[in-house]
Amino acid sequence: MAEIIKLMPEALANQIAAGEVIQRPASVVKELVENSVDAGADKITVNIKDAGRTLIQVVDNGCGMSEKDAFMSFERHATSKIYKTDDLFCIYTKGFRGEALASISSVAEVELKTRQECDEMGTQVIFSGGEFISQTPINTPKGTNFAVKSLFFNVPARRKFLKANSTEFQHIITEFQRVALTHPMIDFSLYHNEQMIYSLPKASLKQRIIAIAGKNLNADLIPVEIDTSIVKITGFTGKPSSAKKRNDKQYFFVNNRYMKNPYFNKAVLLAYDKLILPDTAPSYFLYFEIDPHAIDVNVHPTKTEINFENAQDIFRLLQAGIRETLNKNDVAPALDFDNAQIADMPYFSKDTPMPEAPQVSYNPFYNPFESTEKKYYESKNQYTDYRAKNNLDNWQKLYQTSNNEEIAELPLETQKSINESNKILQVKEKYIVSPVKSGLMIIDQYRAHYRVLYNKFLEVADNNADNTQSLLYPEKLSLDAQSTTMAYDIRDFLTSIGFDIDFTDMQEPVLKGIPTYLEQNDAIEILTDIIDSYKDGHGDLSSSIKDVLAKSIARRKAIKAGRQLSTEEMSSLIDSLFATPEPNFSPDGKTAVVILPIDEIEKKFL
After folding, report:
1. Is 498 left (phi over 0), alpha (psi -120 to 50) or beta?
2. Is the same domain home to 449 and 510?
3. What is the pLDDT averaged over residues 574-599?
4. Do the Cβ atoms of 374 and 386 come closer than 8 Å?
5. In this predicted model, what pLDDT tens digit does every residue of 223-268 receive, in sequence order?
């Protein structure tokens, strides 16, 4: 039988490797920018066209390469960073696998221009689809200039599965931010289609965080300093009051390398236990410094998943350290046993008469459901006799409906509420209870009002889609660059629903007008909700952001638990709820109405 095992061509091997390392344009940006950092650059410029499909260019003023190194850098497993096995467990640099440039050049057209400071002339190397094209001397500034063109031009299946430009560029911004956040003393710039997205001069760490995450985060950052023999953790964490349901401003870095770590994220959340609302999360930017021998970064091609030798110890240190930080900044309750100042407690000697306990008068037979004339009685016997006499009549009345209208069992469709004022109660300032023929109807007042307002605003948005009210004083939007880019992508849609935004300055776009059916105080938060929804949908508008708009407005306007409602308000809410197409559920699909059947009630008394 003939031999069937053969060595695959080098170009094919590189394309397979590219499948792991180069997943999308953002992967190219990550590899090239990290190489620039490792080259000692203090100024890095990234220029993108068509979300990386047409061009990805990274220019730095680092050490540059010699003529020979420039060519060798495209060889697979060629590296300047590791030489022996032990080096894998003592890594301080970003890239080290030696596959990035070989992988990139196998699926794109790549042009490299580079020069060392000691050389008079630089060199230009060109590869296309894994094939060497040319290498020539060239006059070029010190440093390195990589231009990656027509990504995946020779792998149409890979190019076909790239997402929309807005989505791909969103991933590019994410990778750019991760590197920029770890090197505040490097000047970074990012351009997309010749439009400046980021211009980040050298700065302190806090200044860099604010420049990337947005100015509105400035007042919410609390400095963190945890210094132990196992790990040193510095950076910033957010005040509990700034916690959000959807918080993408959460970053862990280890030895200046971004990492994902759900385990340590849990430690941070535990530190905020009982300080933030359920289903919300704080912002944090935390930087770990640890002995490279105590971690393994080579467990995943993207090097974002990192193994820790002392993970459990670090978990405890992180949780305790964040909690202590919050205590010191008066955002968490704490008992300070080391405080020399003792609280001023009143002193009682054995002869001091003790104050009498306060006396409270109350009527044990008080019944709020009885008429005013029957509220108080002289004795328990009178009260018992009265209840026995009237018990049957009262229970019969409880299950009658106004005008003999029938209220059906769940699911409810086109039903009407009961309007008799003496049959509607509010419980715990959260639920509305009303008797129906089959039992008791219980309504969540927030979810019910949310449903009513949602349907109302859907109708309003449709009828006033192109109506804008100009602001007397235009307001600058404090959005991060990623959100600004997303808003720019959907600018036509935002205009169609009434937002007027001037994007002349992409660093600080200006809100000049808002929909006529919005108040100015709510407009920016609602605009942010729309942008976040667009992010979550990965650039998909097909799901109708008008739905997101209506939900966002309704959530903010709906009556919350804890508000006392009058009988008229409760009655009106019930009527409005059952006038909607889907009264049983909130717009988020949560139950708004429950019927407690009479037989279930009777079982409680068996």
Report:
1. left
2. yes
3. 92
4. yes
5. 999 999 999 999 999 999 889 887 889 999 999 999 999 999 999 9
Judged against a pLDDT cut of 60, whether residue 539 lies above it is answered with: no
What pLDDT is attached to residue 398?
A: 32
| Domain contains 340 | no
Mean pLDDT check: name the lowest of 391-400, 467-476, 577-586.
391-400
- The answer to whether the CB of 302 falls within 8 A of the CB of 175 is no
489 burial type by CB count under 10 A (0-12 exposed, 13-18 middle, 19+ buried): buried
**pLDDT of res. 15:** 61
Q: Are residues 194 and 298 in the same domain?
A: no
* Strand order through the sheet with 109-115: 131-138, 122-128, 109-115, 143-149, 55-60, 43-49, 187-192, 195-200
Q: Are strands 250-254 and 284-289 parallel, antiparallel or unpaired?
A: parallel
Indicate if 70 and 180 belong to the same structural domain: yes
96 φ, ψ (degrees, to nearest 5): -160, -10
Give 483: exposed, middle or buried? Use CB within 10 Å, 0-12, 13-18, 19+.
buried
pLDDT grade for 354, boundaries at 50, 70 and 90 = low
Does any domain span residue 342? no
- Is position 339 within any domain? no
Q: What is the pLDDT of residues 152-184, one digit of tens each?
A: 999 888 888 898 888 899 899 999 999 999 999
Residues 55 and 154 occupy one common structural domain: yes
Task: Indicate if 28 and 176 belong to the same structural domain.
Answer: yes
Residue 548 belongs to some domain of the structure: yes
From 338, 368, 398, the end of a domain falls on 398
Alpha helices in 440-544 (DSSP H): 445-463, 481-489, 491-496, 520-536
Rounded mean pLDDT of 459-475?
Answer: 77
Report helix angle 481-489 to 520-536, nearest 10: 90
Domain count, the chain: 4
Confidence of residue 282 (pLDDT cuts 50, 70, 90): very high
C-alpha–C-alpha distance, residues 203 and 206, integer Å: 8
Do 23 and 85 lie in a common domain?
yes
Range of the structural domain that residue 441 is part of = 406-606
Q: What angle do CA 389, 394, 399 make, to 5 degrees?
A: 150
Do both 442 and 579 map to the same domain? yes
Query: What is the C-alpha separation between 224 and 328, in angstroms, rounded?
Result: 11
- What CATH number has the domain bearing residue 298? 3.30.230.10
Distance CA(169)–CA(484), nearest Å, equals 12
Q: What are phi and psi of 205, to 5 degrees?
A: -60, -45
* Paired strand residues for 116: none
The answer for residues whose C-beta is within 8 angstroms of residue 485's C-beta and 6 or more apart is: 166, 169, 170, 173, 192, 197, 506
Q: What is the pTM of this model?
A: 0.69
Q: What are the structure tokens assigned to 225, written together? A: 């300093």
Q: Is the pLDDT of residue 406 over 80?
A: no
Q: Which CATH number is 102's domain given?
A: 3.30.565.10
Contacts of 175 by beta carbon, 8 Å cutoff, 6+ apart: 26, 27, 29, 30, 33
Pair of tokens at residue 387:
């209840």
Residue where a domain terminates, one of 160, 184, 200: 200
Do 176 and 241 lie in one domain? The reply is no
3-state SS class at 121: coil
In the block, residue with structure tokens 């105080």: 521
